[in-house]
Design a protein that fits this description.
The protein is α/β, with parallel strands linked by helices. It has 17 helices and 24 strands. It has a 6-stranded mixed beta sheet with strand order 6-9-10-3-11-12, sandwiched between helices. Strands 18-21-22-15-23-24 form a 6-stranded mixed beta sheet, sandwiched between helices. It has a 4-stranded antiparallel beta sheet with strand order 2-1-4-5, with helices on one face. Bound molecules: adenosine-5'-triphosphate and magnesium ion.
Length: 508
């Protein structure tokens, strides 16, 4: 037995109906290391982690997992068993109960008891101890719903660590975090490492592998491609391992010729619909030309999502300003009206707003677009299926067929379904709120290509993005927001990361 190896995954195979999610996967995780796990959407990363944490118990997969020298045999319906043995996981989606306090969440289902009743003092004292030990900056008595996503992530970590974890699994922990929160998380991972905790770290942001991991394993189509020390890797090599081919450029070249002004927003002011008097937009002006891609940059909280959801008729109460489509004033009060007017929005929170998980891929893609397939009050099922299949193929959605429910898809593939649905809606104005978050590099490229094609056909696109490289790589112009205002618009030819940051932070 090799004492340095804490987890030895040996020839693990996991099948679902029509899908081999893991095909003979072997990975060795060394004690105390941060081990990165990398791979395209649907490669099998989350499935493997669900085996390690007992979501898929012993007997539901082939092969074996040796943990601390012994075969891991987690029983059915006993996710707690993994944590008791020291394997803790922070899932791709947050799992906290918003109406409870931090402490209640950390000890949910394992509250310390005294004579059969919960010992609250102990519960909060223990929580405080964990929070302090790992320098997690939250208060044990705060309500979870009062916290931002970054802090919720910390609570998830505290929860995972509340039983002495030897192995901590993080599945895309940074996808909803701000730059500052990501830095904080990296710091926390460093502290965990000092405490001897072994980490398995999954992300689609390749730079993070280079910031914190010691070694990286790449999965492709359910198989192990390679495990390499991070210092022997470059971003380019990692991408090649992931997608199995050379990828020379990250952004496809468009051949766009933006035309006349299609859409205008003039001095838009709006307030929070739930809190009258609280302004969320304080004067936004921009225009958008036919076939143009306008990037919207800005820090988290600068009002970007508020702007597009207000335009889409779903959020802010407009108190001043104008919105014009093709030179006519428009007033939009609902998402349905927006779609009828020719405006579509790929929302930021795709899980919550974009997708009906218990519906099939086909229904999710076609439902808002049924009018395209209806003739004489009958649904042309062939046309519906064909159009949906074309979208699914373009975006390389990984599924046995379009009839499977979306809850069986990997996280990234669920996102692609939402994007497919809105691409099919043939809008005049397509708004995309952080469209490539959680999506692998290969699929990002496909989405960029589709954006280019749409723009070349005359669709005008507004793209919010937190990745400056993406904004610079895809936009014709970049509008930068700061504190609910448009703080300047740059032509991409003159735009640089520094100039955008200066406008975003309000220095310029
Ligand atoms: N419960 C399930 N039923 C059927 N198929 C499933 C189920 N869970 C996962 N799959 C399939 O197994 C494959 C691997 O999915 P997994 O979630 O492990 O991917 P992933 O690598 O985590 O991808 P992502 O980067 O998108 O999160 C996918 O093809 C997915 O559709
Ligand atoms: Mg996943």
């Amino acid at each position: 037995m090799n004492d340095d190896i804490i987890l030895d995954v040996r020839n693990v195979t996991k099948k679902f109906p029509g899908v081999i999610a893991l095909n003979n996967v072997s990975i060795q995780v060394k004690r105390g290391e941060i081990h990165g796990l990398c791979g395209e959407n649907g490669a099998g990363k989350s499935t493997l982690m669900k085996i390690l944490s007992g979501v898929y118990p012993y007997g539901t997969y082939e092969g074996s997992v040796i943990y601390e020298g012994q075969e891991l045999k987690l029983e059915e319906r006993s996710i707690r068993q993994a944590t008791e043995q020291g394997i803790a996981i922070v899932y791709q989606e947050l799992t906290l109960v918003p109406s409870m306090t931090v402490g209640e969440n950390v000890y949910l289902g394992k509250e310390p008891l005294e004579n059969g009743i919960i010992n609250w003092n102990k519960l909060y004292a223990n929580t405080d101890r964990i929070l302090a030990q790992y320098k997690l900056d939250v208060k044990s008595q705060s309500l979870v719903k009062s916290l931002g996503v970054g802090k919720m992530q910390m609570v998830e970590i505290a929860k995972a660590l509340s039983e002495d974890a030897k192995v901590l699994i993080l599945d895309e922990p940074t996808s909803a975090l701000t730059e500052a929160e990501i830095n904080k998380l990296m710091e926390i991972l460093g502290i965990l490492k000092e405490h001897g905790v072994t980490c398995i770290y999954i992300t689609h942001k390749l730079d993070e592998f280079f910031r914190i991991t010691d070694r990286v394993t790449v999965l492709r189509d359910g198989q192990t491609v390679t495990t390499q020390p991070t210092e022997d890797l470059t971003e380019e090599r990692l991408v090649n391992f992931m997608v199995g081919r050379q990828m020379k450029e990250r952004f496809p070249k468009g051949h766009r010729q933006p035309g006349e002004v299609m859409f205008e927003v003039e001095d838009l002011h709006a307030e929070d619909p739930n809190e009258s008097g609280r302004n969320v937009l304080n004067g936004v002006s921009f225009n958008l030309r036919r076939g143009e891609i306008l990037g919207i940059a800005g820090l988290m909280g600068s009002g970007r999502t508020e702007l597009v959801t207000t335009i889409f008729g779903e959020y802010g109460k407009i108190t001043k300003g104008k919105i014009k489509l093709e030179n006519k004033d428009i007033q939009i009060n609902s998402a349905r009206q927006a779609i009828e007017t020719g405006i579509s929005l790929v929302p930021e929170d795709r899980k919550g707003q974009g997708l009906v998980l218990i519906n099939s891929i086909l229904k999710n893609i076609s439902l808002p677009n049924l009018n395209q397939f209806a003739s004489f009050f009958r649904l042309d099922k062939d046309a519906e299926l064909q159009a949906s299949m074309r979208q699914a193929k373009n975006l390389a959605i990984k599924a046995p067929n379009l009839q499977v429910n979306c809850d069986t898809l990997s996280g990234g593939n669920q996102q692609k379904v939402v994007i497919a649905k809105w691409l099919l809606s043939k809008p005049k104005i397509l708004i995309m709120d952080d469209p490539t978050r959680g999506i692998d590099v290969g699929a990002k490229y496909e989405i960029y290509k589709l954006m280019n094609e749409l723009a070349e056909k005359g669709v005008s696109i507004i793209m919010i993005s937190s990745e400056l490289e993406e904004v610079l790589g895809m936009s014709d112009r970049v509008m930068v927001m700061h504190e609910g205002r448009s703080n300047g618009t740059l032509d991409v030819k003159e735009a640089t990361q520094e100039k955008i940051m200066a406008l975003a932070t309000g220095i310029a």
